[in-house]
Specification:
Length: 140
Amino acid sequence: MDVLYTAEALSTGAGRDGRVTTVDGKLDLEMAVPAEMGGSGKGANPELLFAAGYAACFHSALQSVARAQKVTLTDSSVGGRVQIGPDGSGGFRLAVHLEVVLPGVPETQARELADAAHAVCPYSNATRGNIDVTIAVSDD
């Protein structure tokens, strides 16, 4: 792979109950286990970061495929939901749901754009076959 960019982060403390920072100083977050998982919930957590990263990356891929198809997107958005739960073997699994909103784009075309974005998004490529990812499209 020809590397275009490298991001570096460091987790200190107790992982989910610690701190995460990036080498460039752009992120410096207190981490906390979600209250739903028995923690304080008073900080960020890996699932929040993954949801934000996947939503932003997928939105960028969506914009890119729309431009390539000469489709103008106005006020588009992508919401990301990451869920974590037991895998039945003592570990945990993730699931992702993406909500693509494309105002003014017919549903069939919106679905085609979302499918094309899913084919090129780096997060989608990294997770394909590893976790369940569902994608919903709407115009509002």
